[in-house]
Amino acid sequence: MFSSSRRRAAALVAVVVLVGAGAAAVAYGLGAHQASNNTQAVAPAVTSAPPVPTTTRTANTSGPTSIAEIAKNVSPGVVEVDVTTSGSGSSQVPFGGGGSGGTSEAEGTGFVVDTAGHIVTNEHVIQGATSITVTFDDDSTYKATLVGKDESTDLAVLKVNAPASVLHPLTFGDSSTVGVGDGVVAIGDPYQLDDTVTSGIVSAVGREITSPNNMPIENAIQTDAAINHGNSGGPLLNLDGKVIGVTAQIQSQGGGNEGIGFAIPSNTVSMITNELISNGVAKHALLGVKVATIPASLASTIGDAAGVAVTQVESGTGAGKAGLKASTGTTTIAGVQYPTGGDVITSVDGTAVTTAQQLRAIIDTHQPGDVVKLVVVQAGQSRTVSATLGTRPATS
């Protein structure tokens, strides 16, 4: 079940500061490249797609399985991802693994999603790769090709030409049903220690983390299961052995596990994986606004409605064509500036929105070209507008 012979260089580290984190707290990507501070930017969304068709070795209809059973069933579908990059990236290898001849090496984790040989991992694991190899549980190694990657969700899909005997696809669970306190299991290759299994609980849901291109990833799952450098791209599983997330970041004072890890939710992973397999790229919807939250507790003091205030409207976007108006002033309360004088979005398609994060999460369910109905309030007057979502330009 668990091989002990494959060992690779430790994964590179990406450092990002989390929104709302303390001054000394840092979130580390568990693979390879630096991302910068997250801001409330133009509201993004991942496109919808049907779930990735997979066969499963982990289906369980009789209730939760033991961690040992999950490890036994799932481990054959978890792989080690070894990456060689050009010398230009060697300065970002703080944990060693630098190679000779102007190259450097890094390691991450991935998992099989279908019998065609597609493998999911983090985008930051393979960023800048000149070659990628994948090692399976039985120590067999194959060259991998990059099918597609998406920086905005920190996901990538690889493909290997491997026999069916080594391809054991994992099954996606529904991340929207994950709750605080649920048991979870993580499997990966931290610090060159392949097939490492750790367990814990879901510490929180609905977190926002930062992608390699500084876009927010919504609905991330927080867990206290031990994950470290090299776990990047590995599965976070529920107690039915289904993938509910892809481990991607930790928050830490010193760079090691401190019980605060984050996984990209499986519903996002499934959608983006399908996009990448089908098209090689993932398209993201664009509303075309910058926004800020107006808390209900302060709305009357600010003199505005509670909801999501529009602070900037991009010309030519769906928001611009729908006539949304940006704020014209600010009010400062307890040292925090709140926008005033513009539109405040209070609902989307009949669903109330109270925070900027919630607005982005709702937009995340749409595709470019979708029409959304927004209820907006300005100067106490409410109106409903329709906005056609555009496509966010690719960023790097």
Q: How would you explain this protein's 3D organization?
A:
The protein has two domains: 14-279, Thrombin, subunit H, CATH 2.40.10.120; 284-391, Roll (Pdz3 Domain), CATH 2.30.42.10. The chain has six helices and 25 strands. With 396 residues, the chain is mostly beta strands. The protein has helices spanning 67-74, 123-126, 266-279, 296-302, 318-321, 356-363; strands at residues 14-16, 26-29, 44-46, 78-86, 103-112, 118-121, 129-135, 141-150, 155-160, 183-188, 196-210, 216-223, 235-237, 243-252, 261-265, 284-286, 289-294, 307-313, 329-333, 336-340, 344-348, 351-352, 371-378, 381-388, 390-391. The strands form five sheets. A six-stranded antiparallel beta barrel has the order 10-11-12-15-14-13. Strands 4-5-6-9-8-7 form a six-stranded antiparallel beta barrel. Strands 17, 18, 21, 22, 23 and 24 form a six-stranded antiparallel sheet that branches.
List the helices and strands and how they pair.
Blueprint: E1 14-16, E2 26-29, E3 44-46, H1 67-74, E4 78-86, E5 103-112, E6 118-121, H2 123-126, E7 129-135, E8 141-150, E9 155-160, E10 183-188, E11 196-210, E12 216-223, E13 235-237, E14 243-252, E15 261-265, H3 266-279, E16 284-286, E17 289-294, H4 296-302, E18 307-313, H5 318-321, E19 329-333, E20 336-340, E21 344-348, E22 351-352, H6 356-363, E23 371-378, E24 381-388, E25 390-391
Antiparallel strand pairs: 1-2, 2-14, 3-16, 4-5, 4-7, 5-6, 6-9, 7-8, 8-9, 10-11, 10-13, 11-12, 12-15, 13-14, 14-15, 16-25, 17-18, 18-21, 19-20, 21-22, 21-23, 23-24
